[in-house]
Amino acid sequence: MIPARAINVSRRYGDVLALDNLNLDVPAGQLVGLLGPNGAGKSTLVNLFTGVRQPSSGTVELFGGDPRDPVHRRGLGVTPQETGLPPSLRVGEVVDFVRAHYPDPLGRDEILGRFGLTDLVKRQTGGLSGGQKRRVAVALAFAGRPRIVFLDEPTTGLDVEARRALWDGVRAFHGDGGTVVLTSHYLEEIEALAERVVVIGGGRVLADDTVDAVRGLVAIRRVSLTSRVPLPDLPGVAGTERDGDRLHLMTADADRLVRDLVSHDVPFADLEVRPTSLEEAFLTITHEPVAA
Amino acid sequence: MSSLALTHARFQLIETIRIPISLIGSAFFPAASMLFFVVPFTGDDPVAATYATASMVTFAVMTTNLFQYGIGVAEDRAQPWDPFTRTLPAGPGPRFAGRILAGLVLMTISLIPVVIIAWLFTAATITASAFLAAIGATAVAAIPFTLMGLGIGYSLPSKAAIVVAQVLFFPLAFGGGLMTAPGSAPGFVENLAPYLPTGGTVRLMWAAVGDFPLDVSSLAALAGWTIALGAFAVWAYRRDEGRRFS
Lengths: 292, 246
Known about the structure:
The structure holds two protein chains of two kinds. Helix content of chain A is 29%, strand content 29%. Chain A folds into two domains: 4-213, P-loop containing nucleotide triphosphate hydrolases (Rossmann fold), CATH 3.40.50; 221-275, no CATH class. Chain A has helices at 42-49, 91-99, 108-114, 130-142, 160-175, 187-193, 211-218, 254-263, 278-285; strands at residues 4-13, 16-26, 31-35, 57-62, 76-79, 148-152, 179-184, 196-201, 204-210, 221-226, 237-243, 246-251, 269-275. In chain A, strand 8 (196-201) and strand 9 form a beta hairpin. Chain A contains nine helices and 13 strands. Mean pLDDT of chain A is 87; it is low at 288-292. Chain B is mainly alpha-helical. Chain B has one domain. Chain B contains ten helices and no strands. Chains A and B meet through helix 2 of A and helix 1 and helix 4 of B.
């Protein structure tokens, strides 16, 4: 049985189309990274899979059934994008509260130990640091011995060490056969963990491939230069942006573009080559105008 | 009662007890109303004071539940913890039951001063068996108002929930005959009251503490309200998707 599946799913919020006829299968045991800029529809998709929201049209399935039905969520663990633990409850109490919902949960000490939270068991969550809260929120996803976990930007706000510790926890779960859907806008995080990357933009699947293939796809460089003459048509330019007499060219092959500029005798100054942010790269892939 | 409902109730109570001022707040209003309205006006007449205390208890049951759930739930929904709990494998049942159970405990605490004031400062009298009956009636009375509060809380944002709860509670209190002694409300109120949830519950309460005759059609109306408000609460829960973005 496919743990998570979206078939022709659309979701709108008023006039905004957050998901646009999206299809996605997550087979058992896979570690899938959902990558995309803010507002791409990643969290909406996670909210549909975890039963928080309903699709406007199409079908979302969790273990073959409607995720809005609690029975189908027995094998589900979730770390939402926003943490928001009840501030007056202690860490151990929050873990117990979540465990009480599952038929065969992990032991409290085991969960806390696995995520390095044993020392915090008596602390009220309101008094924890942002990073500590985040670690608790991630630990809660694994409390019910799930078969699939959805981690929505799990390491936002964590320092490098905590991030790596958390990655180890996710790898261990995946190593035992668990299915993971991970959203992030850090390519590094997806590279470190995922086998398969699904790039989402504008509510659609833009790319669905291995990590290496997607890395190539989003490896867009931004070549900036000042020139008073119009540029000739150069090959390999995926997008151009003008800011006064400053030009920003998006290209997958910055070396070739610079050689072309020189060989065409384009008078330019202040040449700059920078890697683009993922967001710029995605927008270039979709041929939408890049925000300045 | 499932153990999950008890778990929900336990954590609800822990959260409340860790901020004790909220307990004092909910106990203050019914106690103050007793001191300002019941003690000076009906304090010397045993029958009137007993009925008035029963009315005040019903009034307190309605307001505490309407407000604690209507506003409490609407505020909870604005927090990210609430959508997270909806990803856990449980439907509205244990959650509602747990909230109701915790609400009953908190309500009981807030009613203790009312009973103590009635006992010390008024001529109100009650037998042990009538007192037990009144406790049962209080629990039954709490259910429709809890469900009404839950329905409001799950269907409206918190600012709207506050307004709706405030707009509802006065006509319900007056129309149900809570502000007047049994049988002495204006005629249209007397005709309407038995079929309002407030009128149904206060009649149950009066019957528990005194000689007030139980009316089957009023009880049937109360049962109908409870079922309808339960359906409203579940409907509101199901359609809720956390915060609205548009």
